[in-house]
Amino acid sequence: MLVVDSRIRLRWSAIALCALVSSPWPLFVPTGAAAQGLDYRDPSQAPPSWRQFAKLVQYRFETWITADEEVANRFRRYLANSGKEDGPPPTLVVRAWLNPDGTVERVSFAALKDARADADLRTILTRGNVGEAPPPEMLQPLSLRFSLNLKK
Description:
Layout: E1 2-4, E2 8-19, E3 39-41, H1 48-65, H2 70-79, E4 91-98, E5 104-109, H3 115-126, E6 142-150
Antiparallel strand pairs: 1-2, 2-3, 2-6, 4-5, 4-6
C-alpha cells in the first residue's frame, strides 16, 4: 500500500484482464455470466506473464500519481476531498490500453465530479511508458481498481 500525503492511501489492484470482441471502449468489466461469449480471463486464471505485467502497470500508475510535479500534486489535492460530497468516489475502475512499445495508448474511467481532476488523471496515466511491452497475445484493456482509503 502506498501512502500519499499524510492522510491518503492509494491502492491499485488488478481486477480483470479482458477484451471485448466488438467494442474498443467497454463500458463494464465482465464477470461471471456476463463474461460468457467474451474474450475474457479471470485474473486468477490469466497466464503468469499477464499478472506480472498488470503488477508493473499498477506500480507505474502509483509512481506517476505520487510524482512531485504540478499535475500529480493538483490531482492529489482533489483526492484529499475524499468522503466529501464533491470529492472523489471511494473506488474507481480504470481501463488501460497499452501499445506494443509499453506506452499507454488510452485510459477509460467513470467521470469524476471535478472536470479538472478528470483531465489531470487522464494526463497522468497516458503520458508515460511502463517500461515493458505487454506480453504477446495479452488481452486488453487491462482493468485496474483504484481505491482510496483515508488514514485517520
